[in-house]
Every structure is written in structure tokens, then in C-alpha cells.
Amino acid sequence: MTYISYRGIVISERVQAVLVSFQFIVLVVMSVIALVRVYSGSAGPQAVHPELSWFSPFGLSAQEFAAGVILCIFIYWGWDSCLAVTEETKDADKTPGRAALISTVILLFTYLIVAVAIQASAGFADTGIGLANEENSDDVLAIVGEPVLGVVMAYVLLLTVAVSAASSTQTTILPTARGALAMVVYGAIPKRFANIHHRYRTPSFATLVMGITSIGFYVVLTVISANALADSIASLGLAVAFYYGITAFSCVWYFRRTLFTSARHFFMRGLLPLLGGIGMAAAFHESAKDMIDPDYGFTSFGPIGGVFVIGVGMLALGVPLMIACAVRLRAFFRGETLNEDTPILVPETGELPAALSE
After folding, report:
1. Do residues 174 and 343 lie in contact, with contact meaning Cβ atoms separated by under 8 Å?
2. Distance (Å, rounded) from C-alpha 245 to C-alpha 344?
3. Using CB atoms within 10 A of its CB, is residue 330 exposed (0-12), middle (13-18) or buried (19+)?
4. What string of DSSP letters covers 257-315?
5. Which of 9, 120, 173, 199 could covalently link to 88 via disulfide, CB atoms 3.0 to 4.6 Å apart?
């Protein structure tokens, strides 16, 4: 996926379209088959009919609700990839925004229908394929797939999971490389990250750095412990909640002088981002409190849970890097290269704009 992202946005888009289409088709077909079997009575004695109460958030504790929010943040992560490639998109003024909205709706529909189908098919018993059976908690799809859908569809379902993992890595590498490109254009990180490949027209250096870093992180944790790798995945929700929250608060601060110039600006630049940021901060806080428990996850470091150490520790590693950049790249941190009056700057040839060349 690093190589595909390096080769260009067109091939990246085509590969992603194939992978995502395969996933959606399999998941929707699986869900329809499962629900038809439930309502026809052929799904087995463990099956239950869906109920409206399944969709109610009431009755949850603050900790349970926060854990659900963090989980949602993690599984929805990647929907915003289309926003990271705005400058490389046809009809860039409208397409990325529409794509973000459509992708969110599609994800919501897919997650809902799959969750309902699995719960209805497997039921909630603590034996057999029931979802309350602790032996099924690590891999529900593998347990439910064959009894509910048959051998062939069960293997196709597992293949879908593998394809999903592959496509998710691309939605990590591609947007972070573009994010690094945007940061260097305004002088927030070293100029090397602005290198554009002369043929593929991609941020080549940033793409390789993000891909190699991801590969290294995965290999190191895999060698250390499979449990450490699992806890690192569980901690990702914290990282995503953190940068979503920071982004929301930054939006309010960045547009602070124009918030009351119109009703649209008040809601879109002020109130809604503020509420989103507060929600992310609350979810981060509640989840971090749970994750600090040594019994949370698979590993622990003395009295502190491994998920908390990995999640907060990775965020903390960014602090010395930020300080180093602040020392060397003072213009950005003094607000001289990025403010409300700054024009949108896009490097075309791998060189920084003249205003930032010094």
C-alpha cells in the first residue's frame, strides 16, 4: 500500500475503489442472507428478531457510553481521507465535501445492518455461537460465519476482513502524507517533506516516511508481543479522538474573529466544532480513565494498563518533536505563515512557495 500510494493518486483511487466495493457488496449480501434466515426461521434456535431497543443509547453508564464513542471513532476512522486529497480531486470545491458526507452515511448504514444481522443471527446466549459466550469475543465473524451463512460465505467473510485491513492501511498512509505536505507548505515541519515526485506527482518523501514508520511500528510490536500489538490497536481510538478534538477546537480559534459575522459562520465555524471538540475531549477522558486500569487489555506496566501507556505514550512522543520544530521553524509557531489572511498554498514542483523559501 505504501508503493501504491507512492505511485500516484489515480492508481490509489482505483485500488481503493475495488477493495471498498468488494467489502460493501459482501457485507450487505451477508446481512441480507442472515436476516432472511432469521425471519424465515431457518437461522437456528439461537436467533432473535431485531428490536428497536437495540438502537437506544439510554441505560448506559458514562464509561460505557465513552467506550462506545471511542470504538465508533476508531471504526469510522478513514472516512475523512477524501478531504486530505482535495487539491487532487476533480471539482475540488464540491466533490471532497460531498464525498465525506456520503461516505459517512454509507458507513453508518453498513455498520448498522451488519450489527443487526449478526446480533439477530447469533443471539445473546452465553453458549454456542451466542454473543454472550466469552469464547466468541475475540472473533465473532469466524464463529458466526459458518453456522449462519455456510462454509463458502464464511470464507468470503474472512477474506473481506483481510481486504478491509489492507485498504485501511492505505487510508492511513495517504492522508498522513498529504497532512505532512500541508504542514511543510506553511513551515510547520522540515522542507524535505515537500518533495514531490517528478513523475508520479505525489509527496514522495512524506509517503515513504509514513509507510516505513507504519511498517516499523507493526514489526517491532509483533516481535515484542502479539498482546502489545493488540493493545496498540485498542489505543488508536484515543489518538484519533485527540486529533479530532484538537482539530475542532482549532477551527473555533482559527475563525474566532468571524464567528458572529453570520448565522452560518456561528454554527459551522463555532458552535458545532466546539460541541464536537468537547465531545471528543469527554470521550478521551473517560476512556483514558478506564484504560489506565492494569486489567484493561492484554498488557500492563506495573499498576498502569498497557493500552493507556501505548496510547498516551505515543501522543507524548510528539511533544519533543513539536518542540524541536518550534525551535527551528519559529515563523509558523509565531503565527506568521498561517493565519486567517494566509492564501492557500500548494507546491507544484516540489519547491516551496517564494514566501516560505527563506
Report:
1. no
2. 23
3. exposed
4. GGTTS-HHHIIIIIIHHHHHHHHHHHHHHHHHHHHTSTTSSS-EETTEEHHHHHHHHHH
5. 9
Summarised one tens digit per residue, pLDDT across range 81-105 is 888 888 888 888 888 889 888 988 9
pTM as predicted: 0.79
Cβ atoms of residues 305 and 288 within 8 Å:
no
Q: Please say whether the dihedral angle defined by the alpha carbons of residues 329, 214, 182 and 346, taken in this order, is positive or negative.
A: positive
Question: What is the distance of C-alpha 162 from the center of its chain?
Answer: 17
Distance CA 218, CA 234 (A): 14
Cβ(352)–Cβ(194) under 8 Å?
Answer: yes
Report whether 202 contacts 10 (CB < 8 A).
no
Name the residue type at position 132: A
Q: What is the pLDDT of residues 44-58, one digit of tens each?
A: 888 999 999 898 888
How long is the chain? 358
